Amino acid sequence: MVASSFLRKCLTTLAGLLLLSFGSLAASQIEDQTEQFFRSGHTNNWAVLVCTSRFWFNYRHVANTLSVYRSVKRLGIPDSHIVLMLADDMACNPRNPKPATVFSHKNMELNVYGDDVEVDYRSYEVTVENFLRVLTGRIPPSTPRSKRLLSDDRSNILIYMTGHGGNGFLKFQDSEEITNIELADAFEQMWQKRRYNELLFIIDTCQGASMYERFYSPNIMALASSQVGEDSLSHQPDPAIGVHLMDRYTFYVLEFLEEINPASQTNMNDLFQVCPKSLCVSTPGHRTDLFQRDPKNVLITDFFGSVRKVEITTETIRLQPDLGNMESRYKKEWMDEELMEPLKYAEQLPVAQIIHQDWSGHHRIFGIPGASKHFSVIMIPSNTLTFSEQSPLSWRARPQVEDHCR
Amino acid sequence: MAAALPLVLFVLLLLGPVGRGHAEPPRDSLREELVITPLPSGDVAATFQFRTRWDSELQREEGLSVLLKADRLFHTSYHSQAVHIRPVCRNARCTSVSWELRQTLSVVFDAFVTGQGKKDWSLFRMFSRTLTEPCPLASESRVYVDITGYNQDNETLEVTPPPTTTYQDVILGARKTYAVYDLLDTAVINNSRNLNLQLKWKSPPESEAPPVPFLHAQRYVSGYGLQNGKLNTLLYNTHPHRAFPVLLLDTVPWHLRLYVHTLTITSKGKDNKPSYVHYQPAQDRLQPHLLEMLIQLPANSATKVSIQFERALLKWTEYTPDPNHGFYVSPSVISALVPSTVAAKPVDWEESPLFKSLYPVSDSSSYFVRLYTEPLLVNLPTPDFSMPYNVICLTCTVVAVCYGSFYNLLTRTFHIEEPSTGGLAKRLANLIRRARGVPPL
């Protein structure tokens, strides 16, 4: 009996030990999985897409930027998190045989302009100063929200630039350049202001690799379409439109991105292989020494998509307790809108008086027999009012007859 | 254009209160309207109007907005957009206001493009889609088709589906008839939820010239060179016997320096003195010129208002990246009370269609119209921006060639250098040569 009870005890303790070990194994597996879930460390995604070229023959740069915009939107980044800068309007250019469209494939297969494109900086607003202000956040207070890069220290930012470039510079709109040193300093300012978690910089210009040579801030990964001394070439012209539609590197990047969906596990190493020399004629380059994670662990959707992550916290957060107060405050503000005195018409130019005075005072050359002498003052319908500062009718100054400038 | 197809589609979406006798409009109301007008040349003019009285902005996704697709709308000969914002009284005493936003889009479809040369048109052919349902937020949503002159019988044209009601009114001084389609009426949008308005011509319409409006205007820049120019505005009064005054407002940017002493107004070859002139000179880089005048246009005449200007040279950083494109001069605004041929009675603005209030009428003899002339593109004297680069290249070349060679001549000294005696191999070779009797190296 003693032996059997002892045996039973041994068995139970053994079973208990085995269960414990299995449990801990399972728990550690779950921990590993949750660890994987949080491995990228970012909670939101932003994109800054810049086309720096003006004029009709640079159609391909606008098409490049719009195709990246389209992919990024399709993979989930909303317009509020995309800053799109296009230096010229190709869709409504008078030389565009198909207005309101920008094509990326010949025979007009794919219209990357779409129905819902939102351009934040357009035409003359795309300057080096505005670009650097967007990146560093030093923006005048009157800038609308859609023109700001409101990133924080947990944001992954994708920066895509295209245009004409050279060894160490990128040309903006035929009148100014940004150098690789300025760009590196801007990224360092962003790092010191904690404006990004990780940054992916892609550039499609001639000698693009020179633009990322000078980066020195951590957590930046850079890709370029050509090395120093090489030109990036354009892909294919379209005979109907008459210009080259896309650049080669971005064309193949677009094809690569078309196969990505928000759940795909493709990593950055695949993106590095995208355009080999046989297709691109130039040698694409990349730089990962400033990046802390291994590129094979970095998902494409970490930068191109907007996969939201949830952070679990064990602290208690107290929300605004008293909603009743807020309502009464709102009503009070509403009531204050009641004006003290009713609004009335602004002063109108007395056309009738002027005409009449003119006619009685001067001997007019044209006697118009049938003309009526009763001209009424220009009136607005009776139940509307005009404020004196806003209605064009009240721009008229008072009729100062003595101020005639003749 | 080929095949004149007068097609006026007025689509008016009016959202109004249910009770007709309601005096005060509800605070939140959206009215949508589409007015389609056929032009005698065969083109079709369509005007969309959306009027909202909001305290906050709302999105429209159904109703007439489905017709607003960019790829069709930009295949037009002409389009124009307008946004009007104004405060309106919320109550009779007008102690509180709400804001009214009115958005207008006018397009003219080329009949040749839309109808392949035929004068028939349909909503689907013009916009590549049809109306499916009214906007759920709209209190009024209507389409008006201008069938003036053809409404008595079905012999000249046929509009399908047949309109339930017609609307007659005096618009722009002429009596017009419209076929009305109310999208909120369930009989119009039937079970198929598909309203494709079509117009077919039974007998070809007589081609007539479009009726010339009583007031129209044109503006252009004349002169040559990049120093001076002349800004001309032509105002046409085509009324046969009535003269009326117009108010002409010009806002000219500061870099066109106007000479106001050269302002001349001529009608029928004779000088026409304006009844009132107001001029506010420009300040460089601060404000533009403001020139406003009240001109009496004689009947059946063309009045030319011209003023000379000089073009200013801007600072080199103020030029745009494409300065040879030119700089824009905003259009002149012409406001007038144009006498109408038909007496119109003033109506309640809330009940009448939106397009009627584009040309308000306060008494029966005239209607108010505000015209905008075309904007102008003016070239300013543009410096050659490649000159700094050229100068640097040329100067450096000249300095290098001239001064450099002169410097070399002055500072270079020559000294004789002894040739080296040569190494061991040379001495051996010389030995062998001496033995052979050949002169040494």
Automatic annotation (TrEMBL), chain A:
InterPro entries registered for this protein in UniProt:
GPI_transamidase (IPR028361), Peptidase_C13 (IPR001096)
Q: Which Pfam families match?
A: Peptidase_C13
- Record has Signal as a keyword: yes
Per the record, membrane topology reads: Single-pass type I membrane protein
Pathway, according to UniProt? Glycolipid biosynthesis; glycosylphosphatidylinositol-anchor biosynthesis
| Gene3D superfamilies xref list | 3.40.50.1460
Sorted keywords for this record are:
GPI-anchor biosynthesis, Signal
One GO CC term, this protein: GPI-anchor transamidase complex
Source domain of life: Eukaryota
Key word Signal present in the record? yes
One annotated GO molecular function is: GPI-anchor transamidase activity
UniProt family annotation? Belongs to the peptidase C13 family.
Quote the subunit structure annotation: Heteropentamer. Part of the GPI-anchor transamidase complex, consisting of PIGK, PIGT, PIGS, PIGU and GAA1. Interacts with GPAA1. Interacts with PIGT; this interaction, via a disulfide link, stabilizes the expression of GAA1 and PIGK and links them to PIGS.
Name of this chain's protein = GPI-anchor transamidase
UniProtKB/TrEMBL annotation, chain B:
| InterPro entries, alphabetized | PIG-T
Q: Which UniProt keywords apply?
A: Membrane, Signal, Transmembrane, Transmembrane helix
Q: Which residues form a coiled coil?
A: none
Signal sequence, start to end: 1-23
Which residue ranges does UniProt annotate as crossing the membrane? 389-410
Q: Does the keyword Oxidoreductase apply?
A: no
Q: Which GO terms describe its cellular component?
A: GPI-anchor transamidase complex
Q: Name one GO biological process term.
A: attachment of GPI anchor to protein
A Pfam family the protein falls into:
Gpi16
What PANTHER family does the annotation carry? Answer: GPI TRANSAMIDASE COMPONENT PIG-T, GPI TRANSAMIDASE COMPONENT PIG-T-RELATED
Supply the name of the protein: Phosphatidylinositol glycan anchor biosynthesis class T
For this protein's source organism, the top of the classification is: Eukaryota, Metazoa, Chordata, Craniata, Vertebrata
